[in-house]
Backbone:
């Protein structure tokens, strides 16, 4: 289904808004349920994540003293394209670097079982307003403004009013995690 949607999207020369992507995906396959994420859907997990999940995780197969250091596989979300979760094994995630990759790795992300408080039910949004855009990305977008057709100018005027953040601020915030 994803391949069908991808091929359908590639047939379009220019796509200007998320709504256009939604429409193209819906046209490609009626079985897709499309839901655009809103700012309030992004929750602040930094407060409760360490209580439940490990920060650094080795794969189940490469954990232990019997595995040489150069053979250990660390969980790196940026290198993963496919996640498989199961209700029968909570906290265990099977990952693959691409959709059709034959090599997979299992990671036990949950902290040790035991007495943990229940997950918070009042998921606090991570952002009070719009999600900040990196100021360099915003500058690149603004350079392209003159090429945006008139019917999309309102959408981009709103985007251009969003808050920005500098690369240095993002770097330091991520270092604190």
Residues:
């Amino acid at each position: 289904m994803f391949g069908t949607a991808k091929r359908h999207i590639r047939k379009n020369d220019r796509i200007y808004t998320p709504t256009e992507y939604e429409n193209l995906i819906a046209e490609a396959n009626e079985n897709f349920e499309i839901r655009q994420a809103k700012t309030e859907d992004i929750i602040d997990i930094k407060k409760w994540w360490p209580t439940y999940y490990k920060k650094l995780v080795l794969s189940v197969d490469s954990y232990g003293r019997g595995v040489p250091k150069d053979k250990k596989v660390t969980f790196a979300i940026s290198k993963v394209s496919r996640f498989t979760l199961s209700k029968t094994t909570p906290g265990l995630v099977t990952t693959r670097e691409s959709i059709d990759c034959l090599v997979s790795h299992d990671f036990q992300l949950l902290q040790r079982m035991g007495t943990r408080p229940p997950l918070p039910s009042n998921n606090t949004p991570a952002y009070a307003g719009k999600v900040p855009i990196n100021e360099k990305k915003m500058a690149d977008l603004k350079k392209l403004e003159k090429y945006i057709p008139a019917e999309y100018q309102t959408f981009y005027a709103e985007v251009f009013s969003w808050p920005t953040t500098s690369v240095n601020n993002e770097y330091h915030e991520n270092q604190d995690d």
Notes: The longest helix spans residues 18-28. Residues 1-36 form one domain. The mean pLDDT is 83.
